Amino acid sequence: CRLDLRHCRKCRNANKGAQRVWTAGSDCCITVQHRVSGSVDFYRGWTQYQSEFGEGPDGNYWIGLNSLHDLTASGPRKLRILMKAWNDSEHWAEYSSFSVGPESDNYRLSVSGFSGSAGIGDSLARSNDFQFTTKDADHDVHSDNCGSRYFGAWWFADCHNTHPNGQYRDFSSAIDGPRAQGIIWKSPFGPYYSLKEIEMLGCPGRDTAARRGGYSAQAVEQMRAFIQEFQRLLKTLHYPCVHTISSDCWTTVQHRVSGSVDFYRGWTQYQSEFGEGPDGNYWIGLNTLHDLTASGPRKLRILMKAWNDSEHWAEYSSFSVGPESDNYRLSVSGFSGSAGIGDSLARSNDFQFTTKDADHDVHSDNCGSRYFGAWWFADCHNTHPNGQYRDFSSAIGGPRAQGVIWKSPFALNPRVAGVVSAERTWRLSRDGLAEYEAASSFWARSDISCMATADSDPAVQLVAFNASSGLCAHFRCRLGLSHCRKGRNANKGDHQVWTAGSDCWTTVQHRVSGSVDFYRNWTQYQSEFGEGPDGNYWIGLNTLHKLTASGPRKPVILMTTWNDSEHWAEYSSFSVGPESDNYRLSVSGFSGSAGIGDSLARSNGFQFTTKDADHDVQATYNCAERFVSAWWFSNCFDTNPNGEYKDSASAIGGAPNLGILWKYPFDREYSLKKFEMLIF
User: Residue ranges per domain, the chain?
Assistant: First the structure.
């Protein structure tokens, strides 16, 4: 079994070409737990966790505590944990010793000997030597029941750093959800990130393997020593490739691992081999490339490693290089790639090779000189493996298109945070990601690349980058949430979060208390007043007209009742006319949260009225004067956001139509606790 490959557990006796493939009598590794979706409930009781449940090892699955004890009773197993993040990057942790005690000791966990893939920390150590807890059987050492508190079951201490049996969260709620709730692996993902998939496999330990094969541990060690010596002898034969039946042999043609070899060379040097050999910085030579592909196209595979040590690949089914007489013209097609990787080599197809002293590209400059390298440039490039090697300090946010480049998805034009792009400025924020709606996600090389890709989509108002996993997530404002507009400069856990240079939503009216008098005159309502958008506030009629003069905006109205329940109404079109028409209101396209009715329709098409400027159609009195307010009154109103603020003692069951009202469904004797109008 090879580490980090889950397929190792799926052993099926079959032929593979000319090879016969056999597996041992049992799978290499046995799946003991697996999460891939929310289709199976893992918030279960003690009796259920003692037994197997779920969809089987390939789906959502738990093998059962009794089986776990049976598997490890004769000796510890290895434990392998496979994790997949929401950008589809894969990670693993392994423990050299794993066992589960008997029911009489509440299936106590014993685990040690951690190792893991790049960046993965030991999040299981905290559970070592603790008993299993479910919602109805509390064996942890916390004052609460951790199983009930975090909606799962696990070997909790005073709770956990990992919780594979937690609630499954889909993408919209997996990032920056409630602390420690979800499918958690704290190091490095943090307590606010719920994984896309996790799988736990019990694998044979050294002693287990020896017993299964009928060999002593000493015999196993002797065989291992023999194999190592045989491999050493093979290497001394200096064969360029050891062939296996029916499998290709790959030849390294280019390799970059550091800046120790200069790749900014001339034509003659690129015709020949140079560098440290295939395992180091290396170029095989244009003449050899032509020779290798002259008899027919080869497959091309490109392996890439980012600065967070995540690995990616691209492959082309057809690759060939022409003769010197055609300046080694490139022919490449048939792209496929790992998750998120785009075809950055297509732009080079059918172009000749260019170096600093031999310009065969179609750009007005020499691309080789311009970008300090050599390649099959067109009007320059989307990939440049032979560019200047940059170390970590200069690899991110450097000059455009300079470096070892693969444009899709890593981008050519990274920028530092706060630099103004053509469209917007990104600024650091601590907005909760749950307050936005996910637009897209993908792997990014860095926070800079993550922000750069957002600039091309005007619908994106927030960007979140997780340096641990490489996940770049783009978000847009989610309707019905005021917090979307509030960008504050700070970090939030593992996430670096940025908002656009302008708020998603603009607050135009806000009521939170009685500290500001809203019973004002015409001139005062024309201008801004109050405590600012986060407090009691009015943006001003003149500003409302300017904001909507170029075209209708979307408004959203947020309401909080005295039991702190939240409700919203939204309109697809909202505009305010000029002063010459007394700021006439135009509003349409209602939708709302459950139970909320259209209380603004009655104001549509009417002019604004204050206590000293009566533009309503009520014949017998001025609605603003009568109801101590100012609004777009008709023959009065079904909503009155600018009415008198009432505290809890007088808000319910008071005089009809006095207060901050939204008639449907709250009626005329209920004054709301909070009210906010925002436009998008």
Answer: 6-204, 254-410, 427-499, 506-679
How high is the pLDDT of residue 111? 96
Question: CA 140, 142, 145, 147 torsion: positive or negative?
Answer: negative
Answer whether 169's CB lies under 8 Å from 192's CB: no
Q: How many CB atoms lie within 10 A of CB 509?
A: 21
Q: Which residues of 218-231 are buried (b: 16+ CB within 10 A; e: fewer)?
A: eeeeeeeeeeeeee
Report the alpha-carbon distance of residue 140 to residue 147 in Å, rounded.
Answer: 9
Q: What backbone torsions phi and psi does residue 111 show, to the nearest 5 degrees? A: -145, 140
Q: Which residues in the chain land under pLDDT 50?
A: 1-27, 206-217, 219-220, 223, 226-227, 230-248, 413-424, 430-431, 479-494, 502-503
Q: Which CATH class is domain 506-679?
A: alpha beta
Domains 6-204 and 254-410 fall in the same CATH topology: yes
Give the chain's count of helices (H) and strands (E). Answer: 18, 33
pTM of this prediction exceeds 0.90: no
- Give the HSE-up count for residue 572: Cα atoms under 13 Å, Cβ half-sphere: 4
**Distance from C-alpha of 326 to C-alpha of 672, rounded to nearest angstrom:** 78
For domain 6-204, the question of CATH label 3.40.1550.10 is answered with no
Taking alpha carbons only, the member of 266, 462, 223 closest to residue 369 is 266
**CATH homologous superfamily of 254-410:** Gamma Fibrinogen, chain A, domain 1 (3.90.215.10)
- Using the structure block, give the residue that is written with the tokens 């003149």: 542
b vs e for 614-642, b when ≥16 Cβ sit within 10 Å of the residue's Cβ?
A: bbbeeeeebbbebbbbbbbbbebbbbbbb
Q: Could you tell me the CA-to-CA distances from 44 to 47, 62, 133, 148, 625 in Å, in that order? A: 8, 11, 10, 10, 61
Cα–Cα distance for residue pair 305/118, rounded to 1 Å: 12
DSSP assignments along 547-593, one per residue: HHHTS-B-EEEEEE-TT--EEEEEEEEEEE--GGGTT-EEEEEEEES
- Please write the tens of the pLDDT for every residue from 260-301: 999 999 999 999 999 999 889 999 999 999 999 999 999 999
425/416 Cα distance (integer angstroms):
10
Q: pLDDT at position 490, please?
A: 26
Hey, what's the torsion of the CAs at 565, 571, 576, 577, to 10 degrees? Answer: -150
468: left (phi over 0), alpha (psi -120 to 50) or beta: alpha
What pLDDT was estimated at residue 176? 64
